[in-house]
Amino acid sequence: MSRTAPTPNDLSIRQLQYVVAVADTLGFHRAAAQLHVSQPTLSAQIQQLETVLGVTIFERDRRRVLVTPAGEEIVARARRVLVEVGDLLSAVSRRRDPFEGTLRIGVIPTVAPYLLPDVTPAVAAKYPKLRLALREEKTPDVVAELREGKLDAGLLALEADLGPDLDHAVILEDPFVVALPHGHPLAGHKRIDMEELEREHVLLLDDGHCFRTQALALCSKAGVKEADLRATSLGTLVQMVSSGAGATLLPQMAVPVENRRAQLEIRPLSPPTPRRTIALIWRNESPLGKPLRELAGVLQAALRGAAAPREAREARAEDRRRRAGGGLAKQV
């Protein structure tokens, strides 16, 4: 391979895209299909780049493709270059109107179905030229794709380990509550201490959900043991609790949606009330930092506007349940 020092003219953005795609898919055929080019074209461009750099980036044979140790550094740097190029193009395209075009946002599953219905109409009304491309993914995936420039922002809990390269704006504080089967003895308590769940089968989400990490930490601190069953969604947890399989912890924002049919006994936890902080996050170097902070304010206002009517409906429903319970007691 050539030992001549490469110059910027020897490299192309397209070649860097090819390198990252092969590293992600570990296959030349899959990478070519992903980028909508022929495999010979992709292979030739990567071989040319390896020649210019004087480094073998990939080991390949008929069965597999591996990234070499030297290639790992090149792939990592290629990712950073592509993110910077994406930021440059985004800054130019949004210079006239930052709220025109497509905004890619990753949202964690324990937030998406409960927050988005309240905020997306408000965003559409405020920014009619803006299109939200929403993707539901777990926290590690949102953070990784944000750093790789595949997402512009994320909606997730700040309690996850995000790192110093990300900025944020808080959207709301979301307290945890206890969900119990109808008629459970602990339902007679106005508030519940975590220690009171020591003898219960406490159901939690599966690995990969940041809400599981927070709930598991609370249970461990209080000496509460987790049940064998792990759910992939809060909806599954609610249905299992409704069937009498145990108790669970829920974020408050999920209760109005998940408890419509289940009619669980929902009780707050004793102070200091554990909670999570939901925030809009983005990369520190993103040219969208200022517009995203403005967008966060719109999300906050939309949630405040939706909260009052919902709380009134919940209060009326609770009053009806109390009256029904009192009438039953008189009959007995």
Automatic annotation (TrEMBL):
Keyword field: Activator, DNA-binding, Transcription, Transcription regulation
Chain segments carrying region Disordered: 305-332
Pfam families (UniProt xref): HTH_1, LysR_substrate
CDD domains xrefs: PBP2_OxyR
UniProt biased composition (Basic and acidic residues): 310-321
MF terms (GO), sorted A to Z: DNA binding; DNA-binding transcription factor activity
Gene Ontology cellular component annotations, sorted alphabetically: protein-DNA complex
HTH lysR-type domain ranges (all copies): 11-68
Family assignment from sequence similarity: Belongs to the LysR transcriptional regulatory family.
Protein name: Hydrogen peroxide-inducible activator
Source organism of the structure: Labilithrix luteola
Higher taxonomy: Bacteria, Pseudomonadati, Myxococcota, Polyangia, Polyangiales
